[in-house]
Amino acid sequence: MTSVIIVGCGGMGRGHLRTILKMKDSTKVVGLVEPSEEMVKQTLALFKEYNLSLPPVFTNLDKFFKSGIKSEASFIITPHHLHFSQSKACLENAMDVLLEKPMVMNEREALDLIEVRNKTGKLLVVAFNGSLSPAIRKVKELIAKNSIGEITQISALIYQNWKKAQTGKWRQLPEISGGGFLFDTGSHMLNTVVDILDDEIEEVFAIEDNRGTPVEVCSAITAHTAKGTLVNLTGAGDSIGCNSEIFIFGTKGVIHTGAWGEKLEIRREGESDFSPLEYPESTGVWEQFLKVREGKLKNPCPPEVGLRFAKLMDMIHASASEKKPIRKKA
Fold first, then answer.
1. Among 89, 151, 241, 256, whose Cα sits 20 to 30 Å from the Cα of 34?
2. Which fold has domain 2-127?
3. What share of the chain is helix, strand, coil (3-state, %, to 5)?
4. Are 211 and 135 in contact (CB under 8 A)?
5. What is the mean pLDDT of the chain?
6. Per-domain residue ranges of the chain
7. What is the percent of the chain with per-residue pLDDT over 70, rounded to a whole number?
8. What is the mean pLDDT of the segment spanning 2-11?
């Protein structure tokens, strides 16, 4: 049984709680950290749905630490600019941490957080659904087994009604969010693509369009890796719904998946269409985090993944700003 505090009870936090509250045999929520009375009210209603009492609520982490309540883990689901300080505090207070994406705001914070992880010896897992997905791990196994031959290209897109849905909210305030659609929902696509490739992005050319907002909303990115794989990425944040597609092209076949590992199929040489592939089921990132804590799974998404993402975002923004290709720093 793992004890956990939930830091952040907004829409995303409550979404994760819906899964966690079903896991009564493996998880006990011992506290909530949430400054908004309205969010606490909505969280109380959620606990009532599951016939559970609301655990102690604190307006900030310092008050939780002073309460004397002990927790083995924390799940941080707050606005992006708070991720570094809150993760650092939890690690230094002897808690393992599951941290929502994106890990931090920039490369400097990523390096500092890795140092804190190293000093404390505690576990830090970044909640990128793709890296924590059994489907994406299956993709990597197939590639390692040469199931579709040499990987030549990868093409990915992600789209959402993000601009309209986030108008007037913190995700469109760069000092809080750290970026726009690509840094937020689009981060799943970027992370999953580079995770699948397991290769360094050597050069990037990017075009961004803010669509009248303070942050980037639409992006078109072309890149290549150290091994010469061509990469094409589309982030369409002024569209409808929310969906993603990733195609991995090999000399002997094509794999089709999604940014969250929500689907998986393959078309091999000589076949006329895609066929679905089986992979282990998962209830989500918290379940995978518990497997890592229990030693059943090697951490598929350590803070080094967050550092990799931060460096790639820096290259993308620099290319869009300077209107030229940007190479990886030596």
1. 241
2. Rossmann fold (3.40.50)
3. 35, 25, 40
4. no
5. 97
6. 2-127, 134-280+303-327
7. 100
8. 98
**Minimal CA–CA distance to 197: which of 234, 233, 159, 226?**
226
Sorting pLDDT into bands at 50, 70 and 90, what band is 314? Answer: very high
CA nearest neighbour of 99 among 259, 302, 312: 302
* Residue at token pair 């140092």: 115
134-148: average pLDDT = 97
Considering the entire predicted model, what is its pTM?
A: 0.95
What digits encode the pLDDT tens for the residues 166-204? 999 999 999 999 999 999 999 999 999 999 999 999 999
Q: Hey, what are 177's tokens?
A: 């969010």
Round to whole Å and give the CA distance between 16 and 22: 10
Report the CATH fold assignment for 134-280+303-327: Dihydrodipicolinate Reductase; domain 2 (3.30.360)
Question: Which secondary-structure segment (H or E) carries 163?
Answer: helix 162-166
Q: Is residue 330 scored above 80 in pLDDT?
A: no
What are 106's two structure tokens?
């920039």
Tally of CB atoms within 10 A around 293: 17
Q: What are phi and psi of 160, to 5 degrees?
A: -165, 160
In which order are the strands placed within the sheet that holds 27-33? 57-58, 27-33, 2-7, 73-76, 96-100, 124-127
CB atoms within 10 A of CB 313: 23
Half-sphere exposure of 216 (CA within 13 A, CB side): 25
User: What are 264's strand-pairing partners?
Assistant: 257
Q: At what angle do helices 11-20 and 37-49 cross, to 10 degrees?
A: 20
